Every structure is written in structure tokens, then in C-alpha cells.
What does this fold into?
Amino acid sequence: MNTRYYRHSGAVPVVGSVMTLIVGFLVAAVLGYLYGAISFWNPFIYVNFLGALGVGFVPAIAIGMAAKAGKIRSTRFLTLVGVASGLVALYFSWAGYILAILVSQDAEALNVSAAVGILISPQAVVALIQLLGEEGVWSIGNITPTGIVLYMFWLVEAGIILGVSLMSAAKLDEPYCESCGVWTDAHEDVPVLNRRRVSELAKSLEEEKYEILDEMLKEDADPANCFLALFHTCPQCEQSNFLNIHHQTITTNKDGEPESETTDIIKHIAVPNSLVEVFTGKAKGLAELKAKVAVENVSEAESEEDEEEL
It folds into this structure.
């Protein structure tokens, strides 16, 4: 593998790992419990589906924020935390659902100690799940799914929560400067480039032939089908500089509205700081020049229209 592409070091600071675990498990437990309780009272299946997506996604977002604050650079660790938080959310969703059932049957008989006992007793939760599986918990018309059929529905629900949590939590998109101990910052200026063959572009960048970027910048690019250059740089030194190339396409949907889609073409290749400064400066100057020319052309067109009217 080409060493010029950034890879996370895999470091997991102790404080950051503890903070990430606490945040992930706490958010997952609270949302899971609320989702379970609401699922019992909610009659609409599609709302439960959206709720399952949220129970998987929101804790993952919290995990990502905590991981960044804790300076964790290990996707493997975040994958494990994502799976674990998904299991926590799943467990507490069942606890919330079961408690909602018990409250609906006899709210006065269910005291705080009994509720807490259910929440912290996996054996009790599993036993009640098995009982619910035998009797069924909801109906569609005259059909009440039980046994294997009901377990299949629950398996899909669990798969949604665990799958979304796993896919969302394991993302670490920003490079980290190991020398300074900080995350790099993305530049606000994103030059638009004309497209080239990806293999040709990657080879040139790997061989440090950066003139290809100048050529792509000078060529007229179609904004609806072009490449974008995004730089990440360390805010404290000039050693950690990385370039991403994205492919942007803009299409029109059935309502006539534009939709933009961006995919990674080249991700986090190391580049010198001089390239970042010079290239972004050229891109900004060229963009200003094109804007100025466009304004002049509009002014000339308006002047010609006024003369024709006279």
C-alpha cells in the first residue's frame, strides 16, 4: 500500500475511550428505553421503523463526537463501541417495552424497585421476551404473529438498530496530526477541477507531479460533473497536509430541483504545505477573474439591449 495516503494510527487514549464508552452507552440506554416504551403505545409500524433507525443513528453520532473530543484514532475500537452501544440500546428498548406493558396492566402495583429490578435483570427481560413471543404482542387484522414469525420481525428490528449503529459509529473521516496532537481542519475554499481519469490523476499525485492540478484547474469544468479539491491541514504546523479529490454530480429530480451527489475519488493523500497555499491561491484568483468576466459580459449584453431599444 502506498504510504503517502493517511491512515489512522490506531491510538486509543484511556480518558478518551472511557468518555466514549460512557457517552455511547448512556445515550443508547436512554433512547432505547424511550423507543421501547413508545413502541408499545404507538400503533403505526412505520413510526417504529423510523424510531429504530434513530436509536441506531443518534448514539453513533454521540460516539463519533466523543471519540473526536477524546482523540481516538482507531476505527476498530469505534466499531466495537458501536456494536456494544447497539446491544445496549436493544436491551433497554426491550426493558422499556416490557415496563410499558406492566404499567398498562397494573400501574399501581409496579413500584420503583420492581421497575429497576426489571431494567437490571437480563434473565427477567429474556424470560418475558420468550413469553411475549409465545402469546404475541400485536395484530394485523385478525392475524397475531407468534413464535418464529414474530421472532423474525424482532430480528429485523434488531438488525436495523445494530447495523445503523455499526455503520455510523465506525467513521473517522478527518486526518490527525500526531506531532501536534490535534485534528486537521478542512479548508473552506474548494477548487472546482475538470475531470481526468482517476488512475492518471492518482499516479501523478503519488509521484508528486502536481502540475496536473493546475491543468485541471485552468480547464473549463462542468459544475454538474466535475472534481472538487478539498485540503485538510494542521492548524499548528505545516507538516500534516492532505488532499481529497471528490467527484461531484448534479442532477435534476422529478420535481425539477437540483440534487448533488459527492463521492470520494482520492482520499487523504499527503501533500506539501506549499502546494496547499499556492494552489488554493491560484484557484481563488481564477474564480474571482471568472466572476469579473461574467459581470462584464452581463453589463455588455445589457448595454447592447439598451442601444437596440433606442
Notes: Strands lie at 176-177, 182-183, 185-186, 192-193, 225-233, 241-252, 258-270. The two ends are 69 Å apart (CA to CA). The chain has a mean pLDDT of 84.
